[in-house]
Design goal:
This protein is an alpha+beta fold. The protein is about 35% helix and about 25% strand. A hairpin with a 2-residue loop joins β5 (about 80-90) and β6 (about 90-95). The longest helix is centred in the C-terminal third of the chain and has 15 residues, at about 110-120. The protein starts with a strand and ends in an 8-residue tail after the last helix.
Length: about 130
């Protein structure tokens, strides 16, 4: 799948994708406040965030289907820690861990360019095949 999902089809490990933008912090979503986009279930901290997402999901979806942005710059799909993240040019990038954020930030433009180049070729491939 091009989206990193948990069992039950939950994206972003159950964290609210809108909260990264509105509160500037990773925020767990509620299992009772959800929206489905592209077959993936997203959870939200409140109804306002769910409404914002439903109105413009592409604005809030993480890059690379929610796989680690640093790993994608090497053409790999790696699971994430939703508390390791950055927003660059209004795009949410999640990472495998805080160390991945540090490495990725050493050259953000180059890492995004590399990851953007790999993504079309690997998005539909299973992580184990990369």
């Amino acid at each position: 799948s091009p989206v990193n999902v948990e069992p039950g089809g939950i994206g972003l490990k159950g964290y609210d994708p809108v909260a990264y933008f509105t509160s500037g912090a990773p925020t767990p979503g509620s299992p009772e406040i959800t929206a489905i986009h592209g077959g993936t279930v997203y959870r939200f901290a409140d109804e306002d965030n769910r409404e914002a997402f439903s109105a413009a999901p592409d604005k809030y979806l993480p890059a690379y289907g929610g796989f680690c942005a640093l790993a994608m710059s090497f053409g790999k799909k790696v699971d994430i820690d939703p508390t390791a993240w950055r927003i660059v040019d209004d795009v949410l990038y999640v990472q495998a861990n805080p160390r991945a954020v540090e490495i990725w930030e050493q050259d953000i433009p180059a890492n995004i360019d590399k990851a953007d180049g790999f993504w079309p070729d690997v998005m539909d491939r299973p992580p184990g095949d990369l």
